[in-house]
Amino acid sequence: xxxxxxxxxxxxxxxxxxxxxxxxxxxxxxxxxxxxxxxxxxxxxxxxxxxxxxxxxxxxxxxxxxxxxxx
Length: 71
Known about the structure:
This protein is mainly alpha-helical and 71 residues long. Helix content is 55%, strand content 11%. It contains four helices and three strands. A three-stranded antiparallel sheet has the order 1-3-2. Helix 1 (3-14) crosses helix 3 and helix 2 crosses helix 3. The longest helix is centred in the middle third of the chain and has 13 residues, at 32-44.
C-alpha cells in the first residue's frame, strides 16, 4: 500500500472514535482528495470501515470490529 494508506490505517488504529475525512486530512496534513482516494482503497480491502453516527450526516471511518478483536 502507498505511504498515506499506512498513515491513515495507523491513525484509525490509534483513534478511540471514528474519524471524518476532514479529521484525517487535518491530523496528517494531507489533502482531502488524497484521503478520499486512500479511504476508498482501505475500505475495499476491509482494513477500514465506513460508519454512520445517528444525527451526523458525515461519513466516519474506523477500524472494523473484527480487526479490533485481533489486536
